Amino acid sequence: MDWQGQKLSEQLMQIMLVASALIAFAVGYVIGSFRLMLLIYLGGVILTTLITVPNWPFFNRHPLKWLESEEAERNPKPLQTVIPKKKTSKAHQK
């Protein structure tokens, strides 16, 4: 699963859980059954898990391109040097 797929999976999870909670509450309130409300919400959680947890192909549309190990060793990433900030005098601060 790539980074954008992870973001999509999390967004789908949040939307589906909130939607199933709202639907479960509405049905449970109208019918007056706490048990039915919990069963509907449980079904929403199971459906959400089946859709968002497995690594489905639509979660891997933007795969990362990794360098081969030999190429990475030939072209190492340059080290960043930290340049300390110069202290300013009080005259420059005014």
UniProtKB/TrEMBL annotation:
Q: Where is it predominantly found?
A: endoplasmic reticulum
Q: Which residues cross the membrane?
A: 12-32, 38-59
- Here the segments flagged for biased composition (Basic residues) are 84-94
Q: What does UniProt give as the signal peptide span? A: none
One GO cellular component term of this record is: signal peptidase complex
The keyword Transmembrane is annotated on this UniProt entry = yes
The ranges of region (Disordered) come to 70-94
Where does this one sit in the cell? Endoplasmic reticulum membrane
Gene Ontology process terms (BP): protein targeting to ER; signal peptide processing
Q: Highest taxon of the source?
A: Eukaryota
Instruction: Give the matching Pfam families.
Output: SPC12 (PF06645)
Q: Does this UniProt record's set of keywords contain Transmembrane?
A: yes
* Keywords recorded for this protein, A-Z: Endoplasmic reticulum, Membrane, Transmembrane, Transmembrane helix
Q: How does it sit in the membrane?
A: Multi-pass membrane protein
Functional summary from the UniProt entry: Component of the signal peptidase complex (SPC) which catalyzes the cleavage of N-terminal signal sequences from nascent proteins as they are translocated into the lumen of the endoplasmic reticulum. Dispensable for SPC enzymatic activity.
The family annotation for this protein states: Belongs to the SPCS1 family.
Task: Note the PANTHER family from the entry.
Answer: MICROSOMAL SIGNAL PEPTIDASE 12 KDA SUBUNIT (PTHR13202), SIGNAL PEPTIDASE COMPLEX SUBUNIT 1 (PTHR13202:SF0)
Name of the protein this chain belongs to: Signal peptidase complex subunit 1
Q: What is the lineage of its organism?
A: Eukaryota, Viridiplantae, Streptophyta, Embryophyta, Tracheophyta
